[in-house]
Design goal:
It holds the Pfam family CBS. The protein is α/β, with parallel strands linked by helices. The chain contains 7 helices and 7 strands, in the order αβαββααββαββαα. It starts with 6 loop residues before the first helix and ends with a helix.
């Protein structure tokens, strides 16, 4: 399923974005007010330039003892973060995020302008209903069609019972 096909995607609020010359303290305050974990850094045309996440704040600001009131977002941002398009597959995006260990994915248009941002939590919420349907379908198929292993075990058990029965009859009549 494509990102744009999810009704949740169409109902997301506009993405939070700032320009690189903004101070980190501004971003921190806004992130806390919005209860979000990242800010996308854009240029004047809203093209994605970078991203600052909570992890960046810890590693590049706090660990370096930088002053958030004097430090710009551009100086601590992750440059050229991975992006996706509205026509990309939801599961493939989640797989990419999991494999490359990042939690926020900017969604851009054909020109690279920011359209939205999705988190791993968004992708899990988007894919969870389909995963439940798939699990239910597989479970139903398994219950309706016994596997070859199960059939083999039943056949082996039946042969063993017949053989033991024949041995018992032979033994009891001697």
């Amino acid at each position: 399923m494509k990102i744009k096909d999810r009704w949740e995607f169409a109902n997301k609020p506009p993405p939070f974005a700032l320009q690189g010359d903004e101070k980190v303290s501004t971003a921190i305050t806004s992130m806390a007010q919005r209860n979000i974990g990242s800010v996308v850094i854009v240029d004047d045309t809203f093209k994605v330039q970078g991203m600052v996440t909570e992890r960046d704040l810890v590693r590049r600001l706090l660990a370096e003892n930088l002053d958030p009131d004097k430090t710009t977002l551009a100086s601590i941002m992750t440059i050229s973060p991975r992006t996706a398009h509205e026509v990309d597959d939801v599961v493939e995006c989640l797989r990419l995020m999991s494999n490359e260990r990042f939690r926020h994915l900017p969604i851009v248009d054909e020109s690279g302008r920011l359209v939205s941002i999705l988190s791993q939590g968004d992708f899990v919420a988007y894919t969870w209903p389909e995963l439940l349907v798939l699990v239910r379908k597989k479970a139903t198929e398994t219950l309706q069609r016994p596997s070859m292993q199960t059939l083999g075990a039943i056949l082996l058990y039946t042969l063993a019972v017949i053989a033991m029965s024949n041995l018992w009859q032979d033994f009891s009549f001697r």
